[in-house]
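Build the 3D complex.
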Amino acid sequence: MSNAEDRGAIEVGARRLRVVVGVLIVLIAASVLLAWAGAVAGRVHVEIRQHADFVDPRLAATISTGLVEVALFKLWQMLGLVQAGELFSRRVVARFRSFAFWLLLMAAFGVAFPLLSNAESVSNAAGAHQATFVISLTDLLLLGVTALLFLLARVLERARMVDEENREFV
Amino acid sequence: MPIIVRLDVMLALRKVRSKELAADIGITEANLSLLKSGKVKGIRFATLEAICDRLDCQPGDLLEYFPDNEG
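Done.
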């Protein structure tokens, strides 16, 4: 596959992925709105799992989902730039790093919030001397994956520098 | 920069315009302009070969080395 064909395939792939991400952003936002409205839509029932009594679980879910939405929006922006032909530009790398950052925030919130809410509920109970913290493997995996994305962002930055240097050869 | 590019001299000698050369060898006018002014990091052999072929010259006619010429 020639360079031009390769670039064309990447741009097509970016456009398709951008459509998927765009649909995902809309669906997630819609599900959060439906959850706040306490709605049941046909066979789809939106519910929130409760972590603790002292905070509105919908708020926690909204914060978490909001962080995901911001991350996905950054990804959507990045894919738009790739679709336009930019592959290793500063803007693409910056958007990717931003995407990784918001995803990491979301993962950290997902791990920290149950811990904090559990600690709060234990300290509220009279005569309580024990606290149990549960961290699921999925949470750890998510943290690991988002940390890996940060590494990938650095690799992408290096690729950008190589690409820029390559352009200075005629 | 110790390497001086004499492409503009060769273009004048052969009476070829930059635009023509750029189109014939398959690089952009902007890149050719950068090459003429010596503001590139390097030149590929394929490009050098194409220029020599088009202008009927040798690489030595296009590039000169002045070790004391810095900046």
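Helices of chain A lie at 3-37, 57-83, 90-124, 137-167.
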